[in-house]
Every structure is written in C-alpha cells, then in structure tokens.
Amino acid sequence: MEDKKSLKEKLKAHLPHKKGAEKKQTGTEDTGFTIRLARFIIEKRAWIESVFIAGCIFCAVAMLFVNVNYDLTKYVPSTAQSSMGLDVMKKEFGYPGTARLMLKDVSLYEAKQYKDKIQAIDGVDQVLWCDTTVNVYAGEDFINMDEIKDYYKDRCAVMDITFEEESDSPKTETAIDEMKAITGDKGCYVGMAVQNKSLIQTTHEEMNKILVVNEGGEFVHFKSMQQDLLYESLLKGHCRRTAYFLNSFDRLSLQENRARALFLVNKPDANTVFAKYQADRAYGDALELGVVYKTEFEKIIDIRADGEEYHVRFSSILSIINGDDIRKVRIVSEGTAIHATPRFPENTSGFFFRTYDQQYELL
Q1: 255 and 248 in contact (C-beta within 8 Å)?
Q2: Is-above-0.70 flag for pTM?
Q3: Is the pLDDT of residue 340 over 80?
C-alpha cells in the first residue's frame, strides 16, 4: 500500500501542471517586495497620513519665512565668470546699495545740515558731497562755484549716498524711508537702491490681486468682464514699467535700466529709442553733466483687443532735470502687446511689446 502511494506521488510530481504551479508559487515569492510594500502601506496608513499632515503644516509655516529675491545677480549661475567676479568684488570691496539725492532750493549751509542728518541714519555708510573739498561755512563769496558745480548749482545740492548693505536689504529700505522723511518735498531720489524699493512696493501691490490659472499657465475664463479688467490692470502696469525703464536714467542707473527694458519690449524697437537718446547726447549729458531723466506714467489713451494681441496707446511725462532747470516732454507710446509667461522679477505682468514706437511732444 505504501509502495502505491509513493508511486502516485512521484507521478504527480512529474505532471506539467504541477511544475507550473510550483514555479508560479516560487515567482510569487520572488516578487514578495511589492507585496510587503503594499502590506506596509495598508497597515501603516494612519502613520503615513500623520507624516503627510505634519509635512503640510511645516510647509505652511515655512512659507511665511520665504523671501522674494530682487537681486538679479543671484539668478546667474555661480560658475559663470560674471558671478565669480561679483563674488571677488564683494569679498574685497563689498557690494552696497547706492542712491543719488538732489535737494532743491537750499543754501550750502542748509544742504550741509541735511547731509549730517542723513549721514546719521542707521543703514547709511557714507554721503559724498562737496563739503569734503571746500569749507561750506566760508560763504558763497569765498568759494569757487565752478569747482563744486557737479554737487551744487543754482541752489540745488546733489549727494551720492552709499548704504551699509545691498540694495534689496530691509535695512536699506528703512534708511530710504527715513531719508525721505527728512528731506520731504525738497528731495529727489534716483539710483539702484531706490529703484529696487519701488519695484518691491509695486510687486507687493500687484501680487495682492488673485489670478486664476490652469495647468498650462493660462488665465481661466471665470467672467469676461473681470478678466478684461484684470488684463487692463496688468497691461497698465506693463506700460508704466516700459515707459520708465526705456526713458529714465542717470549716471548710476543708465545701464541697468536699459537692460531691464529689454525684458519688456522687443530689442530692435528698444534700440531705436536708445539710439535717439544717444544721438541727442542725452546719455552723454547724464554721464558727464549729471543730468537726470525721469519718466512718470500719465494715462492709457486707448486699448483694443485683437485675438491674443492688445493694441495700446498711452502717454508719459519725461522730466529732464539739470540742476534747477527742469524741462518736461510728453511721450506718446503705441505698441502691440502679447501675453506670455511672466518672468519674475524682470517682467511680473507677463506682457511683452512685440512692436513699439514712441513720439515726443515738448511741453
């Protein structure tokens, strides 16, 4: 009886379907890692959910401590030669923020008082003015005014200000606010530190508007009227920045503003504007004589939508400040703007002038 059972077991062992079953069972054991992983996820689902919730809470709290970077040089790769050169310069000499201040309708003595107050502000490293070379207390009759015309002319005093920290530093922003409180309406400011502060304020104002986008980065069509108002608001801000960076400059901000303008308008049309200022010796006057060109947006004249393009006409007022002499020019701009992916912080609106032209009217 035992011999029959053993013979039967041997026959079953050699049957094909039995071999396949054994192989299948062995294969299941070989893929046991995926089974163990699935079993771990099911059995530890409460623990996994707790970790996920804790991670979400941590991200929500950490989000409050994330600051926006407004320093364009930090977007350059650390291996680039320009970035390496900046690192060496910062290490050897520092890279502080700078600004230029013009005080209107002040005497030499009054300008000196303003300088001393500004010099004492926390965050200001030094203020360069003509009192370092001449005795301003001696009286204007005893001072050769031609020697100090770059810093004082026609009762207008110009001072170069260097801050302790970089242009986008909160300490520098606070120092600029204190300076404006001291000078009041008598002070006119230009320079990278002042421009960065203005950019930060503009960005914060525009970021308060909620934009609804889909996965492709396009605006969701929620209500046509609301979308039209949204586009008009963004396009208005784009026109304001375009007019400013194309037509505002001084000896400190000339190159920076020209570079920023190329993120807002196509290069050939931008070069046409630059060439006109070059031919009119505006750049030379800014670099050699300290003339300041400052543009302020005036109004939108007309907006027409044509599919994905927007034809817009707008005006701005250009003030040419040469000491106490101020000339004003109205700039009427016209162009075709298209909407693209925003590039922060160079182009926060996402609009770009595919074509652009401007005309000038002397006021």
Answers
A1: no
A2: no
A3: no
